[in-house]
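User: Structure please.
Assistant: Input sequence and predicted structure:
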Amino acid sequence: MIVSFYDRLFKPVDDNASLSVDLPSFKLVKRPVEMNDLSCKCEPFSEDIQPTFLIIKDDLGRYIYGSLAGIPLLNNDNQTEINGTDIKSMLSCDVIFDKKENYSTVNEILIYIFEKWKQSLGEDYIKCELVFKDENSQIEVGEYMPIYKEAIYNAWEEMKRILKFYNLYIDTSIDLEKKKIIFSIGQTMRRDLAIRLWEYGYKNYGKWIADVNECKGYFEDKDKVLHDEVDGEKSETWILTSQNKITTTANERDIYPIKRKLVTSNINIRDARANALKELLDSCYNENIELEVKDAVPDFETKFLVYVKRGDDIYKELPCGELHYDSTGLVKFQIGYRYTGIQFI
């Protein structure tokens, strides 16, 4: 396994362009929406410059992973310590959006955010492209449709909410031949994989309660008066169920105690409803079931059908939250989106 360093224009650094990786040190954690983590050690990197990108390849030169290079540091053992920064972090920039309220598809919303981000940085910054893995799939807009006024937004935060609500993930790669970064959007929970927890001896499931399980939005008028109905359009109370369904039907509630949050909007009642939905997104799939890879190899498109005890009905259907790699490949995976690692403290 080797690591190579590149500048902003994807040109390899003149010296030490390909360095051997210390295999036991290689650790990569990939996440469908949150930031990835890469760390490893390699031969000393002696260039007196700060590279922009790094690429990990196998011994045959095949692409494994690419990230921002961060700042390679030389330790006391004359090894370079690498902590790669996820390419998705490039999207975390403040951008001015135009007023925009209606979209035909979710694809259109994501393209709008991405293009606004690209325009704000200039076309000569770094070549980037947004692609959808299923090119012919147009995702219909559901209950959550953001309403943008002319204001400053963080492109990544806006994109992340869309991805979470519509069960999408984003992956990145570096195309050295075309000298650009590819941001790829895919659909989570597409392929079923049964997980029988008793086969893993796993018992710590369902031990966490969502921070928020009910939310309602109010329109705040110019006199600071709150309204949950305007011109016959209502703002419903959104409820999160134990099966990660967001509903407005009270008798479907099965998470107690009730943890309610109220939010406001000074735009209109539709925006208030959307803001309320946003608040429940971080509470969806609030599980953390970590298992070692056995026969089946999951990915971000896997839908885990989780069974707790032999003979019981299905416990939950959950997405893949993390994929853990070492130098041998995928070794561990997490079911659910509850992140408890040191990187989130």
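Residues 147 and 181 are 28 Å apart (CA to CA).
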